[in-house]
């Protein structure tokens, strides 16, 4: 671990839980880049899965996996 990272880690320990949460969000956004947030991504995934169930695709896929 570099000296800079060690210094930052030490200073992070002085932050409140809310400040740590804010910092984590900032770091994750920096790493992941711009895009949809996790809540939106989960909503989209739920919609996709519900559509698959309604179209019968999920049931067919589950049946195929069960038969293998």
From TrEMBL:
<dbReference type="Pfam" id="PF09720">
    <property type="entry name" value="Unstab_antitox"/>
</dbReference>
<protein>
    <submittedName>
        <fullName>Addiction module protein</fullName>
    </submittedName>
</protein>
<dbReference type="InterPro" id="IPR013406">
    <property type="entry name" value="CHP02574_addiction_mod"/>
</dbReference>
């Amino acid at each position: 671990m570099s000296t800079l990272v060690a210094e930052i880690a030490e200073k992070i320990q002085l932050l409140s839980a809310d400040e740590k949460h804010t910092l984590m969000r900032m770091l994750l956004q920096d790493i992941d880049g711009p895009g949809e947030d996790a809540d939106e991504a989960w909503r989209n995934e739920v919609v996709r899965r519900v559509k698959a169930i309604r179209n019968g695709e999920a049931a067919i896929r589950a049946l195929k996996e069960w038969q293998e």
